[in-house]
Amino acid sequence: MKRIVRFIPDLMALFMAAIFLDSLRYKFTDHPKTREIFGRLDGWAATLGAPGLFSHTGLFSQYVIGSIELLAASLLIIGLHPRFQPLQAGGALAGLLVMIGAVSFHLFTPLGIDPNNDGAGLFIAACTNLAFAALLLGLFRRDALMVLIGRVAAVLRPS
Question: What's the CA gap between 95 and 21, in Å, rounded?
Answer without folding.
Answer: 12
